[in-house]
């Protein structure tokens, strides 16, 4: 590619090559030794590649955007449990159950309901709920993935979740910046395609005019 | 995105500055669409919380089931009331911020439109389909 973008913009970001801005279509074509058609094909291919990357980034963005409220929910649950910590005393712990997709707390089937323990209805299976008492507890178990669950004190759990939340937010920010960069490249490429196309149409028209002029002169 | 269509055959000089303006416009346009979705979502959430709050006033039960995470916790009504009130406030605050951002983007887009149309006339189309 020949012509350059005047400002000292970066030439790539996270492996995404920047689209170069073309100052003048004619010099660009002659310098890169391309005719309009092959230049168009080249830029169109580029555009397709950009679109593929955009889809990937968008999928990542969706994942992160779903993850953030999930972590926030977990934090909310821990906070609720901590706020509940009070007087009630419970013994035997029998049931581990998901309080949230990534969090578990120890529950036991509930009979004696009136105490400071948190009474909760939780989904056993789709549409089926069961009631449980969440006993006063200093700890929750966090689902770490890879079939591993670890018990944390409420404070530690909050710190860990907060940290995760920060990380998720930071990666989302980077991702959004990447997407923005990518979209700029898409726009540059689209404009370039339009300009090459117009240049081509213009050239053809000029050629036609001159050839009819020559024919007229001959006659 | 719809910033092409420089149809008339005349050779129009496009400078790097123009290109940057077009890029910015495109960015704003994208953000505007995102914002519209976010605003719609926020509004719905706000209304739902409002409804829940009203429902709660009418309810005569002492304990209410309140969803935290995926679990319905049995909580006393006044606690749920304050929680819903807090959630509503936070949501409405967020909504106001989104509306503000939208207004600023709309006005910046209008300014860019003026600039670009002045230069490219009908060789550029910046309207939604």
Automatic annotation (TrEMBL), chain A:
InterPro entries with a match to the protein in the record: PFD3, Prefoldin, Prefoldin_subunit_alpha
One Pfam family, short name: Prefoldin
Single GO cellular component term: cytoplasm
A biological process term (GO) from this entry: response to cold
Superkingdom of origin: Eukaryota
Coiled-coil stretches noted in the UniProt entry, renumbered to this chain: none
Keywords assigned: Chaperone
GO molecular function term, any single one: tubulin binding
Job description of the protein: Binds specifically to cytosolic chaperonin (c-CPN) and transfers target proteins to it. Binds to nascent polypeptide chain and promotes folding in an environment in which there are many competing pathways for nonnative proteins.
Oligomer status and interactors: Heterohexamer of two PFD-alpha type and four PFD-beta type subunits.
Family: Belongs to the prefoldin subunit alpha family.
Protein name: Prefoldin subunit 3
Protein's organism: Thlaspi arvense (Field penny-cress)
UniProtKB/TrEMBL annotation, chain B:
Coiled-coil stretches: 25-52
GO biological process per UniProt: protein folding
GO CC list: cytoplasm; prefoldin complex
Membrane-traversing stretches: none
Highest taxon of source: Eukaryota
An MF annotation (GO) of this entry: unfolded protein binding
Keywords, in A-Z order: Chaperone, Coiled coil
Family assignment from sequence similarity: Belongs to the prefoldin subunit beta family.
Subunit structure, as described in the record: Heterohexamer of two PFD-alpha type and four PFD-beta type subunits.
Described function: Binds specifically to cytosolic chaperonin (c-CPN) and transfers target proteins to it. Binds to nascent polypeptide chain and promotes folding in an environment in which there are many competing pathways for nonnative proteins.
Name of the protein in its database record: Prefoldin subunit 4
Phylogenetic classification of the source organism: Eukaryota, Viridiplantae, Streptophyta, Embryophyta, Tracheophyta
């Amino acid at each position: 590619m020949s012509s350059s973008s005047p400002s000292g913009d970066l030439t790539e970001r996270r492996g995404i090559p920047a689209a170069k801005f073309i100052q003048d279509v004619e010099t660009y074509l002659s310098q890169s030794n391309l005719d309009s058609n092959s230049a168009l094909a080249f830029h169109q291919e580029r555009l397709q590649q950009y679109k593929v990357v955009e889809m990937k980034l968008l999928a990542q963005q969706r994942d992160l955007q779903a993850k953030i409220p999930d972590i926030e929910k977990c934090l909310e649950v821990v906070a609720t449990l901590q706020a509940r910590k009070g007087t009630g005393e419970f013994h035997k712990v029998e049931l581990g159950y998901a309080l949230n997709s990534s969090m578990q707390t120890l529950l036991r089937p509930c009979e004696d309901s009136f105490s400071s323990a948190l009474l909760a209805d939780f989904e056993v299976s789709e549409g089926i709920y069961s009631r449980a008492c969440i006993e006063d507890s200093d700890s929750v178990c966090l689902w770490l993935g890879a079939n591993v669950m670890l018990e944390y004190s409420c404070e530690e759990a909050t710190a860990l979740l907060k940290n995760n939340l920060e990380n998720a937010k930071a990666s989302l920010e980077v991702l959004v910046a990447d997407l923005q960069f990518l979209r700029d490249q898409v726009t540059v490429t689209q404009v370039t395609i339009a300009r090459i196309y117009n240049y081509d149409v213009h050239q053809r028209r000029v050629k036609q005019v001159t050839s009819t002029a020559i024919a007229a002169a001959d006659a | 995105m719809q910033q092409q269509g420089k149809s008339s055959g005349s050779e129009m000089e496009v400078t790097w500055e123009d290109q940057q303006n077009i890029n910015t416009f495109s960015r704003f346009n994208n953000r505007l669409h995102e914002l519209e979705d976010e605003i719609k979502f926020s509004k719905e959430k706000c209304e739902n919380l409002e409804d829940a709050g009203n429902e709660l006033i009418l309810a005569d039960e002492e304990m209410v089931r309140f969803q935290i995470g995926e679990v319905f916790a049995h909580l006393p009504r006044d606690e749920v009331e304050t929680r819903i009130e807090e959630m509503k406030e936070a949501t409405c605050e967020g909504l106001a911020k989104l509306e503000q951002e939208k207004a600023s983007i709309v006005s910046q887009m209008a300014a860019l439109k003026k600039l670009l149309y002045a230069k490219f006339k009908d060789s550029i189309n910046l309207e939604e389909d």
